[in-house]
Amino acid sequence: MKRLVIASPLMALCVPLQPALALDAACDPIMTAGERKIAQDAWHSIIRSGNTEIEYMKVDRQFFVRIAGRGWEKAPDFDDVAKKTLEMMRNGEAKLTNCKDEGSGTLDGRKTKSISYTIEMPGLPSPSDAKLTVGKDDGLPYSESSGNGKATIHYDYQNVVAPRL
After folding, report:
1. How far is it, in rounded angstroms, from Cα 127 to Cα 123?
2. What residue spans define the domains of the chain?
3. pTM for this one?
């Protein structure tokens, strides 16, 4: 079976990011969100871009993917991908700039704040503007958008159970 891999600026936040000396303090919530997401035992994300929908899931250090509503499959270790992306952030291959607080709101009844930013990553159309919405109480990412909303990710951390393969 052929595998479809979609790389987008949004995927950068699927990884743990830590502040680097070159980063603006306004980027801290983005870094914290990445760190907190990777530390979770379980999460479920849905990426929508055009007519494509991809779901990713992490449950107890196991990773799963479902493309376009087809059956779930085991997926590569996203933590490994996260480590590689983190290294790119540390050595300057990937750049996070123009971080700006876009204000507070609510999402699914949760108090949130949004941050806009620009990311440049090798192999991706660069630079790309994006927006991240994080929980005010837990700092976790709950939604992201890129390309003026053409690509979105929604995250859930509650009641995530490994799928049947």
Report:
1. 11
2. 9-156
3. 0.82
